[in-house]
Design brief:
This protein is an alpha/beta fold. The chain has 3 domains: about 5-175, Thiamin diphosphate (ThDP)-binding fold, Pyr/PP domains (Rossmann fold); about 195-355, Rossmann fold, CATH 3.40.50.1220; about 370-545, Rossmann fold. It has 23 helices and 22 strands. The protein is globular.
Length: about 575
């Protein structure tokens, strides 16, 4: 042992390795099997955020990663502590978010004996992690943790779990951070776009008259925003976005169409259906994007650029696959493409909007009713007016309000929308916002949550208060599990079984946690209250009492084609001045 290779306990090795990996914040909850790790924490410059439920820890690490682009880290004890992380790990897996989850485990000598709080967490999380590890020796902790970070952030990002037995935490071993470095990342041999594939792609692009770019979350993860903008501008190709792709391409760019899919804009879906070429950039053809696959973009050739070979031809058969990092692939593709000055296709797509472009209007009409669309549009308008749009992060829960946010809030910047897209996890928003604010304390962070999902993780209000985080919370309160109610209205003869929900007084609930709040039920009070929350410098909750039986439109019914959209009922008064398609 030398001064450069000190003899440390496994617990100390863990923290020293995390420091070496650049970790400054971790989200967790202590317990018996991980107490040696917590005992050693005082020796290291890492801030620990004490959550109120381990699910919150995994969502916080997720939100931290999405907001910062770094690896988020969460920690829990064995047994129920570890299993409480599962929903958050699955959320990160479905959305390709780099998270490292560290769990304590019973001592190696009693593994498999059903010891107190023992559970096979590596077996449980095998399908929902990129990789996971069981560590039983102190000397294996540093190399395992370093490899976990490499796996989490390399290629297609995702969550990794490291389970460390209690005796490994307590034993000692020499610590050498550099010697513990993992082998250099070697991309899979398939992660290389072949020359003939490039040639085929170029030929299809040059021949196409009605191309559409499908912009996915991979643009953000690859850092390919500039390349995508350059590509679209050079070829005059309109850009449609997935939910997680919002902000990857500037909303107010002339070529931006908006969101596609089940609750996407009508003109976007029609443009996709009429296209003769789809260029899928870092997206996976999710079922909420495609509708009925048998009728999806029937006349379009398809070029798919993705870093994950398993996504190619998984849902939609493509004509050309360019497998690899999106930014690098576009860097190679762009020089081979001449500029195109034919704007006829753009004009044709813009003509599809007609009067349905109401969501581009700065001020939605006020008819005396308060709708969720009003609230979300006004939050956006207030941030815009205050010059804070680029410094605002919206974190949504899952349901109607999530879709309204995607429709009525304009995202021009990457990482400005944080939402659970793939798993659709209710309860995600509040803890994920804590992670986002911890990563970006200089930004305004808004939670937009429904009254149902908010109650799932409302205990984390105390975490916000304990951490002194100035997070703004907008509860869209309609007295229902809104999206469930909408489906029951549309497909189950208005049998509202188990969808009406009784809620506490959310302002009083916030006050019980030491957080100020306000009730809003009229449109005229929205903007002043939003400004009050944003400028308070402290956490603030607003309970927005909105119309109960409003719906998200357009909507594609299960089994319907992308162009077969259900329009807003004509009797709905929200948008009396414009046709909402």
């Amino acid at each position: 042992m030398t001064p450069n290779n000190p003899q440390l306990t496994g617990a100390e090795i863990l923290w020293a390795t995390l420091v070496g990996e650049g970790v400054t914040t971790i989200f967790g909850y202590p317990g018996g099997a991980i107490l040696p790790i917590y005992d050693a924490l005082r020796k290291f410059p890492i801030h620990h955020v004490l959550v109120r439920h381990e699910q919150g820890a995994s969502h916080m690490a997720d939100g931290y990663a999405r907001a910062s682009g770094k690896v988020g880290v969460c920690m829990a004890t064995s047994g129920p502590g570890a299993t409480n992380l599962v929903t958050g790990i699955a959320t990160a897996m479905l959305d390709s978010i780099p998270v490292v989850a560290i769990t304590g485990q019973v001592s190696s000598k009693v593994l498999g004996s059903d010891a107190f709080q023992e559970v096979d967490i590596t077996g449980i999380t095998l399908p929902i992690t990129k990789h996971n590890y069981l560590v039983t020796r102190a000397e294996d902790i540093a190399p395992t943790v370093r490899e976990a970070f490499r796996v989490a952030r390399s290629g297609r990002p995702g969550p990794v779990l490291v389970d460390i037995t209690k005796d490994a935490q307590q034993a000692t071993a020499p610590f050498d951070f550099e010697a513990a470095a993992p082998a250099a990342y070697r991309p899979h041999p398939m992660l290389r776009a072949e020359t003939n594939s490039f040639e085929q792609a170029i030929e299809l692009i040059l021949k196409s008259k009605r191309p559409v770019i499908l912009a996915g979350h991979g643009i953000v993860e690859s850092g390919a925003r500039d390349q995508v903008i350059a590509f679209a501008e050079r070829r005059q190709i309109p850009v449609a976005s997935t939910l997680l792709g919002l902000g990857a391409f500037p909303t107010y760019h002339a070529l931006s169409l908006g969101m596609m899919g089940m609750h996407g804009e009508s003109w976007v879906n029609h443009a996709i259906q009429q296209a003769d070429l789809l260029l899928a950039f870092g997206m996976r053809f999710d079922d909420r994007v495609t509708g009925n696959l048998a009728h999806y973009a029937p006349n379009a050739k398809k070029i798919h650029i993705d870093i994950d070979p398993s996504e190619i031809n998984k849902n939609v058969k493509v004509d050309v696959a360019l497998i690899g990092d999106l930014a690098h692939t576009l860097d190679k593709l762009l020089p081979a493409l001449p500029a195109n000055d034919d704007a006829s296709w753009i004009a044709e797509v813009n003509a599809l909007k007609g009067t349905a472009a109401v969501r581009d209007i700065m001020n939605l009409p006020d008819n005396g009713h308060l709708y969720a669309a009003h609230v979300i549009n006004d939050i956006w308008r207030e941030a815009l007016a205050a010059g804070r749009l680029a410094q605002t992060v919206i974190v949504t829960d899952v349901g109607q309000h999530q879709m309204w946010e995607a429709q009525y809030y304009k995202h021009d910047a990457p990482r400005s929308l944080i939402t659970s897209g793939g798993l659709g996890t209710m309860g995600f928003a509040l803890p994920a916002a804590i992670g986002a604010k911890s990563a970006c304390p200089e930004k305004d962070v808004w939670v937009i949550a429904g009254d149902g999902g908010f109650q799932m993780t409302a205990c984390e209000l105390s975490t916000i208060q304990q951490e002194g985080l100035a997070i703004n919370i907008a509860v869209i309160n309609n007295g229902f599990l809104g999206m469930v109610r909408q489906w029951q209205e549309a497909f189950y003869d208005k049998n509202y079984a188990a969808s009406p929900i009784l809620s506490p007084d959310f302002v009083l609930l916030a006050a019980a946690h030491g957080i100020a709040g306000a009730h809003v039920s009229q449109r005229k009070d929205v903007t002043p209250t939003v400004t009050k929350a944003r400028t308070s410098g402290k956490p603030f909750l607003i309970n927005f009492q909105v119309e109960k039986e409003d719906g998200v439109y357009p909507m594609i019914a299960p089994g319907a084609a992308l162009h077969e959209m259900v329009r807003r009922p004509q009797t709905n008064p929200l948008l009396e001045t414009a046709e909402d398609e």
